[in-house]
Amino acid sequence: MKVQRHSRILERVRSGGVVSVEQLSSELAVSPSTIRRDLHQLDRAGVLARVHGGAALPAHLLPDADTARPFATVAKADQDEKLIVARAAAARVRDGEVVALDIGTTTQLLARELRGRPVTVVTNSLAVLDELRDDESVELILLGGLVRRAYRSMVGVLTEDALRQLRVDQAFIGTSGVDTAGQVLDSTFVEVPAKRALVAAAREVVLVADGNKLPGTGTLRVLDVRDVQVLVTTASADPAILALCRELGVEVDVRTIGEAA
Q1: Is the domain of 238 the same as that of 141?
Q2: What is the pLDDT of residues 98-157, one digit of tens each?
Q3: Distance between CA atoms of 89 and 159, rounded to whole angstroms?
Q4: Could you tell me the pTM of the whole model?
Q5: Nearby residues of 138 by Cβ (< 8 Å), 6 or more positions away
Q6: Other residues' Cβ atoms within 10 Å of the Cβ of residue 53
């Protein structure tokens, strides 16, 4: 039984990237304590990695999208559309609010648009830090964690634990793509738990994604669009995905290049 259970756990982690103790306990019909023992044994064997509340693929098995396309390369893609999304998103922020900015090139541009504003910004993005570090109008909270230099981000248990102590008015979340079923995706396994923690800390979740990411690709589901309150995107987005978002109650803000925020 244990061998079969371990095999099922490994299949689940390989297919989903990250899985919780509660999910495994329910799917395998065993107690959470049994799952924790299994995860400990599999972690010691090097075939998975224990993370807070569950397990993930170990680092040596992770596909590293950031190495293939580092931050500077991604930042050059679709710059005009990212900028109009960033400006529209910044216009949603009210003075005095506490907002969380996700990792990514669009949120870096959003941070630039918030310069000089009396707001509090919470982030695990070193790119956002670079935009706001010298701005005395902005109160900046940098989350701790493991530094991922290729994508200028901070991730890991320290990041997630810090976010559990916070509550923000709005979280601005990036994505590698939204599929036709309304799944918000990402391609970097180690960053997904931090994204989910940002979502959990927010009263309102704003997805910022230029239209070229609707549809888009990714290896892991971060959340469903039904868990998003607002989508800010551009006119190049797939109309069917926009219709699905509206049907699920998401406020959809579609912008065109050259349009004022």
Answers
A1: yes
A2: 999 999 999 999 999 999 999 999 999 999 999 999 999 999 999 999 898 877 899 988
A3: 24
A4: 0.75
A5: 114, 115, 116, 117, 118, 119, 120, 121, 132
A6: 14
